[in-house]
Structure formats: structure tokens, C-alpha cells
Amino acid sequence: MCRLFGMHAGKTPVKATFWLLTAPDSLSRQSRREADGFGIGTFDGEGRPVVDKAPIAAYEDKAFAAEARDLSSTTFLAHVRYASTGGNLLVNTHPFEQDNRLLAHNGVVEDLDRLEARLRQLGVMDLVKGDTDSERVFALITAEARSNGGDVEAAIVSALAWVAENLRLFAVNIILTTGSDVWAVRYPDTHPLYVLELAGSEPHAGMRTQRISVHSQEMAEGRRPAVLLATEKMDDNPKWRLMDSGEVLHIDPSLKVHSSNPLPPEPRYRLTLADLDVTAAASQQPLKVG
């Protein structure tokens, strides 16, 4: 399954060093489980998105895949992709950018012809450059935000409620970032998504999973508070919390975390692994929740 990571460091940018694909699978499993792309999204001092991504698997260029990226931002978004829809192309690689926002997604949404019809109706099909379900869901959120005056959380809820009611859905876990705010959704309970609120009193210079590692000496030295989101717990801190199914979480510029559960308890047309084609099913192997 795709790996997601998000971090909000507050109102003042911090420096962080990222490594992606730090512990690739054994060679015998690479052909099915190596990444199909990876990317990191940050924001510059003017709040403009800055995206560094590549549509390659680790075994195609291990040196590039393991290269450290030193970045400075208030918010960060990283994604390691296992393709369920769309080939290994830059336009299909996360994070995606629309209206100065970035989004990364983990899951599978089907009935894309129906979703595209909705996007055409709303006049935003031109936002879609690639083949993924993720970019199309993002365009639906963007359309809702444009129509409601820029209320991102309301747009997320409206868009995902429509998806849950109208499309076949396996999972639609998302992290959406701007230069000042972060939103996350876990829906339904197919894949894990964890949140960790750090008050600034505990050391947290380095955190890692098998796919994404993050180190911030600045945060360690200054004991800077932060809020992190990840598909896997990144250390043994007992404060990691598994988000609820249907939970919509917002981290504001002051690092206050607001949580609500406005989505339907279950999507109308919920899919299982057995319902997915071979490629999609291989990309969605579950992680252990705990």
C-alpha cells in the first residue's frame, strides 16, 4: 500500500531531512512491491507549493531513491506510491498540486468514468493531468472549495461524502496541505492512518518507518512542537493515535488539532481486496494496525 507522511511544525519554518525508500523489500519481492514513485511537498516563504517527485521504482535507481532531501517549511507532505491506477509517469506521482494546495492519497476509488462526469459538470476536469483516481478525487475537493469560498474542510467533507454515496470505494485516506494548515482523512477503516501531537518537551529529532525517514536537528535542539501523520507509527512514542474511520482532522497554524466525524459510517459501495483487479489488489496489501 502507499505510504503517507505529513507534518505541521507551526508558524515558523523548520529544516527537515527526508529519506524515502530507506528499507526496500528483498529482491525476490521487488517486482510486485517496490514503489512506483515517490515525492515530497513543501511550501516556500510566500506559501507557494514546492514539489520534488520522481515516477521511478527503487530498483531502477536506488541511489536517487535513497538520496536525502534537505527541506525547510512549516508543513511537509511525503508519499511513496504503489500504483493501483495509472502508469509510472510524473503526472501520476504524488503529491498533486491544485490551487496552491497539495494532496497525497492512499487507497482505491473506482467508477472513474462517473467521477469524471461529475468533474466535467463542475467545470474542473481540466485540473486532471494524469490517470489516477487520487488526482480526480483532489479535483472534486478543489471544485467544492472554489464553490464554497475556500472552506477546505467543508470541501473535503462534501467531496468525500459524494464519493462515498456514488462510487465503489476501497479506501480514500488523504493528507492535504497548504503553507499554513494540514487536513487528514481516514475513510473507511481499511488502512491505518496515525496522528501524533508533540508538545515540544519530548525529543523527536528522527523518526522512521520502512519507507520514510525524517530527521530535524532544529526541532530536536529547540524542542519544537509539531503534529505528525503517518500510515505507520514512526517510533515507540505511546501517544501515536489511530484515527477513527471517517475522521476528518484539521491542524491549524497554531498546531491546534480539530477533529470531526462527518462522513457516513460506511460507503454505499464498499469494496474488498477480492473485488479489486490483480494490480490494484497487489498495491493495497494491508499494514498491521496497532
Automatic annotation (TrEMBL):
Q: Which UniProt keywords apply?
A: Glutamine amidotransferase
Q: Which CDD domains match?
A: YafJ
The record's listing under InterPro entries reads: EgtC-like (IPR026869), GATase_2_dom (IPR017932), Ntn_hydrolases_N (IPR029055)
Entry-linked PROSITE patterns? GATASE_TYPE_2 (PS51278)
Signal peptide region: none
**Domain of life, per the record?**
Bacteria
Q: Which residues form the Glutamine amidotransferase type-2 domain?
A: 2-254
SUPFAM superfamilies reported for this sequence = N-terminal nucleophile aminohydrolases (Ntn hydrolases) (SSF56235)
**Transmembrane ranges?**
none
Under Pfam families, the record lists:
GATase_4
The cross-references to PANTHER family, in alphabetical order and at most eight, read: GLUTAMINE AMIDOTRANSFERASE (PTHR42824), GLUTAMINE AMIDOTRANSFERASE YAFJ-RELATED (PTHR42824:SF1)
User: What's the name of the protein?
Assistant: Class II glutamine amidotransferase
Q: What is the lineage of its organism?
A: Bacteria, Bacillati, Actinomycetota, Actinomycetes, Micrococcales
